[in-house]
From TrEMBL:
FAD/NAD(P)-binding domain: residues covered: 3-297
Keywords: Disulfide bond, FAD, Flavoprotein, NADP, Oxidoreductase, Redox-active center
Subunit structure: Homodimer.
Cofactor note: Binds 1 FAD per subunit.
Name by which UniProt lists this protein: Thioredoxin reductase
Recorded name of the encoding gene: trxB
InterPro entries documented for this protein: FAD/NAD-bd_sf, FAD/NAD-binding_dom, Ferredoxin-NADP_redctase_2, Pyr_nucl-diS_OxRdtase_2_AS, Thioredox_Rdtase
Source organism superkingdom: Bacteria
EC numbers on record: 1.8.1.9
Single GO term (MF): thioredoxin-disulfide reductase (NADPH) activity
PANTHER family the record matches: THIOREDOXIN REDUCTASE 1-RELATED-RELATED
SUPFAM superfamilies: FAD/NAD(P)-binding domain
Required co-factors: FAD
Class in the EC hierarchy, top level: oxidoreductase
Amino acid sequence: MLDLAIIGGGPAGLSAGLYATRGGLKEVVMFEKGMPGGQITSSSELENYPGVAEVKSGFDFMIPWQEQCFRFGLKHEMKEVKRVERKDKHFVVIFNDDSSVEAKSVIVATGGSPKRSGINGEDTYWGKGVSSCATCDGFFYKNKEVAVLGGGDTALEESIHLAKICSKVTLIHRRNEFRASPVTVERLKKESKIEVLTPYEITEICGDNSGVNGLKIKNLENGNQSELSIAGIFVLIGYNINNSVLQQTDGSMLCEVNQYGNAKVNLKMETNVPGLFIAGDLREDSPKQVVCAASDGAIAALSVLEYIEHTK
C-alpha cells in the first residue's frame, strides 16, 4: 500500500511530491497520464515566479522541477486515473484500464483549464497574443491596446486590472447584460480606459508572425462588421475544473464541492474526508497562479505527513 498517491503532475503535484518524499515518506507515487509539468508548459513566457529572474517558457521553467522532485524518491507512473474511492480507512485509486492501487492518503492536483471560444485564429495565436490570464500576461501589454472577451465577474475584474497597465481595454460581450455582480459592473463603468462593446461577437482573431494584431467583430443587433487593432486578447469565458476523479459511481462526489465543482478545503488543504487533500486550481478560491499551486502542494504534503503520523 502506498503512503501517498498524488494525482496530477503540475506545479501542485510536483511540489507535493517533493515535500512528501523529503519529509520521509517512502512510498509516494505521482500519477499523470503524460509527462509532468502541467498546464503552465504551454505558456510561451513566464516572468513572475519569485526568485527566477530570467524570462522562460513554461516548458523550460518546469524541466528542473522534475529532476529536483525525483531526486528525493518521488516515483512517476504514466497512468490516467478514473476515480478515487474511500475504502475503510484508506483509499483505492482506480485507473482507466480498471487496475487499481491502494493508498493511505491522496492528494488530488488535477487542476483545470480555461474554456476556449473556438473563434477562428484562437488556437493559432494562443500564447502569441491570446491569453486567459491577465494577472499572468498583462504586463507584456503595458501601454498597449488589448481586448477582453467575456461577461462574467472574472472578465470584468481582469478588464479593470488591465486598465491599470494598458493604454486601452475593449471589453467585448455578446449580450447587453453582464453576468457579473452589480458592484463589479459599477466599478467597470468608472474606468475611463475601458470601452464596452455589446452585443458584439468576435468572428476572427487576426495576426502575423509577430502575434495578434487585430480582431474582426460583428454587431449582433444590426449585423455590421468592423475591425479592431489590438496587441492582445484575453479570453475569459469560464474555466473547466478537472474533478472527474472525485466523482463516484452513483454520481456523488468523494468530498464536498461548491456549486462550480471546486473542492472545499481548509488552510491545510484538507477536505471533509480524512486523508484526502486537494491542491492547486481544483480547490475553491484558487488564484490560478504557479506560485500559489506550488504552495498548495507543499502545504498538502506537510498535512499528509501530520495525518499519517497521527493515524499510525
